[in-house]
Amino acid sequence: MRITNSMMSHTLTRYLMQQSEAIYKVQEQISTQKRINKPSDDPAGMRKVLDYRNKIGTIDQYLDNIGRATTRLESTEITLDIVDDLIGVVREVSQQQAKGTAQSRSFAADQVKDLYDQVLDLANSKFGKNYMFSGYQTDTPAYSHSVEISGGTAN
What we know:
By secondary structure, the chain is mostly helical. It has three helices and four strands, in the order H-H-H-E-E-E-E. It has a two-stranded antiparallel sheet with strand order 1-2. Strands 3-4 form a two-stranded antiparallel ribbon.
């Protein structure tokens, strides 16, 4: 078989083009620091990359949900601690007024009403745009002023 100058130049040109493409691919991998830059680089590897991205997105969403739930739980715990303290104050007032006069009991009733209003406000606390203690109806307050205390008697 005869090898012509034209065949040699075509072979050399093709070889140089292959080498240039290989160099370009390696330079692209070095500059992006990624082995797979487009799906045609490694179709099976690209499938794994997409699966990993999906898993990372799912994990990120779990972490975000956990963070929001933790913050809401801490807020709820703080609110309940304050309510517990207020109920303790009501207990102290009621124990002090067990043997009190009518005038002191009237004063104590006003004090208990104020504490009741504070507890009610805390029971209708919001976390973000939602009421914390309303169950699934987060857009409506959980409690309303249904008990009125006046003169030491509840109406």
